[in-house]
Amino acid sequence: MTHEDAATVKDQQEALQKLGEIRRSIDNLDAAMIHILAERFRCTQEVGKLKAEHQLPPSDPEREKLQVARLRELADDAHLDPEFAEKFLNFVIAEVIHHHQRIAEAAASQSSAK
Ligand SMILES: O=C(O)C(=O)C[C@]1(C(=O)O)C=C[C@@H](O)C=C1
């Protein structure tokens, strides 16, 4: 092995060590994201039940507009792409609306069976 080759291997070993450290943080952050999302869905399940019990519509476009504007601003401040933040929020909210619809359908079929 030449002197240069040995230096490259050493550089790569250091880079791989750094990569491993960064990945440990990424794994922790991914776990935190899952816990945060689970907690958010726990809250929205409550909202879904409340809406179904009181015949309120599953979606609230006005509320969504406020959430998008707020999250875009937060993303911008945090140097995160606001377009991505908006897409991510819309993706989560679309899933929540599906859950709300399913809860409303279940509540409607229960009350018609009575
Ligand atoms: O706040 C509500 O009314 C909800 O149902 C929650 C939520 C959300 O996930 O944040 C979902 C659907 C609505 O269109 C708006 C917001």
TrEMBL record:
UniProt protein name: Chorismate mutase
The organism's taxonomic lineage, starting at the top: Bacteria, Bacillati, Actinomycetota, Actinomycetes, Micrococcales
Pfam families xrefs: CM_2
Top-level lineage group: Bacteria
InterPro entries for this protein: Chorismate_II_sf, Chorismate_mutase-related, CM_bact, CM_dom_sf, CM_II_prokaryot
The protein's Enzyme Commission number: 5.4.99.5
Major enzyme class: isomerase
One example of a Gene Ontology biological process annotation: salicylic acid biosynthetic process
PROSITE patterns cross-referenced by the UniProt entry: CHORISMATE_MUT_2
Gene Ontology MF terms: chorismate mutase activity
Signal peptide: none
Sorted UniProt keywords: Isomerase
SMART domains linked: CM_2
Domain Chorismate mutase: 13-104
